[in-house]
Q: What sequence folds into this?
């Protein structure tokens, strides 16, 4: 099959900006994970802690969604459907490999650890492999499939792994799988609805290549519609999230309960709550010239996997050093991290923010270097980092 004509378009910086913002939020999430066992976000009296956690909810949906959009844009660069399928399958397989090896070590700093966290890199990889087949569907059919998975998967909430088998956790669940020898797999990100989120991002791709004013209007309309749908559905408790919302003693508690939706697996309302504002942000940012600070976020957004693979061990090592000097003990940070193996004394939230900011600033020079390298060169291996 002849290759499609190559379409050379300037990068849409608002997409890189959005991706960069959520990747920076990811470092906050992991600084919080490693630095101590903080109260669960459901403890609504801890409002500041709640918002710290809530902000990081945007990371996975936006990254998976935009990975689908990037897959569409990859196909616009003169690639045949076979080339797109091959690229997505190999890259997806590579991500799964990274999750089970390098990323696993970054979490534990123990190559012999039995802990195997199946998280966002894992599900992004599997979603890419699924998209390597799904992208061949007509776009309107794929859009219906994607929206049906996102909107309809909460109908499966009543199905449990105890009823159908351990494999259900991989498909639409959360929690530990049966041990494999000394390996203890733990499913954080199930395939449903994340595959649908990525394929929805792929279907979003044609809007991205529209003329600026048209795509801006589309982004604003879609983002606003998702937010309105969330606001209308949430108080009904009819469908879309297993967490029942109710009025609490104070207005603040009531509001926090309103936005406290299920992430594992992500409910329809969770995805409306996160992807809606993210798409709206694209519409707003698309018309704004980036300043010096925004350009730093854009740089990070252009090297997402590179950033991810650097920030995780850096945060872990920083907390390890702190633990050594304060507790004389780093055992709770080897073969686990704070939520699974609590520190003797969780550190304060201000320290978490300090660690977060220091981590991002320390990574900026490396991200600038790698972004410049990717711009100068076209080596095949660069597309896998």
A:
């Amino acid at each position: 099959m002849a290759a499609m004509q190559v379409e050379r378009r300037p990068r849409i910086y608002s997409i890189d900006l959005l991706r960069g913002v959520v990747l920076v939020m990811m470092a906050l999430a992991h600084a919080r994970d490693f630095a101590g066992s903080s109260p669960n976000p459901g403890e609504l009296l801890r409002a500041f802690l709640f918002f710290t956690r809530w902000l990081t909810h945007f990371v996975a949906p936006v990254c998976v969604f935009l990975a689908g959009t990037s897959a569409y844009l990859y196909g616009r660069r003169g690639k045949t459907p076979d080339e797109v399928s091959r690229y997505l399958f190999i890259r997806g397989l590579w991500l799964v490999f990274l999750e089970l090896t390098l990323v696993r070590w970054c979490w534990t700093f123990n190559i012999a650890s039995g802990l195997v966290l199946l998280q966002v890199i894992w599900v992004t990889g599997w979603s890419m492999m699924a998209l390597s087949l799904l992208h061949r569907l007509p776009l309107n059919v794929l859009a219906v499939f994607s929206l049906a998975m996102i909107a309809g998967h909460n109908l499966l909430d009543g199905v449990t792994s105890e009823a159908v088998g351990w494999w259900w956790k991989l498909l639409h669940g959360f929690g530990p799988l049966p041990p494999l020898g000394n390996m203890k797999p733990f499913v954080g990100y199930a395939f449903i609805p994340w595959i649908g989120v990525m394929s929805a991002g792929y279907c979003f791709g044609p809007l991205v290549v529209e003329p600026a004013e048209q795509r801006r209007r589309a982004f604003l309309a879609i983002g606003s519609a998702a937010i309105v749908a969330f606001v209308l559905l949430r108080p009904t408790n009819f469908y879309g999230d297993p967490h029942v919302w109710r009025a609490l003693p104070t207005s603040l508690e009531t509001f926090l309960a309103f936005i406290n939706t299920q992430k594992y697996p992500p409910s329809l309302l969770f995805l409306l709550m996160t992807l809606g504002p993210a798409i709206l942000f694209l519409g707003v940012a698309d018309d704004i010239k980036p300043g010096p600070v925004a350009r730093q976020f854009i740089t990070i957004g252009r090297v997402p996997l590179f950033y991810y693979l650097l920030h995780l061990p850096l945060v872990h090592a920083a907390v390890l050093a702190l633990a050594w000097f304060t507790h004389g003990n780093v055992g709770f940070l080897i073969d686990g991290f704070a939520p699974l193996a609590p520190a003797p004394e969780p550190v304060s939230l201000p320290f978490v923010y300090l660690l977060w900011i220091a981590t991002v600033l320390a990574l900026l020079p490396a991200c600038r270097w790698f972004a410049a390298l990717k711009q100068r060169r076209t080596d095949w291996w660069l597309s896998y980092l």
About this structure: Residues 349-376 form the longest helix (28 residues). The two ends are 28 Å apart (CA to CA). The chain has a mean pLDDT of 89. Residues 195 and 316 are 29 Å apart (CA to CA).
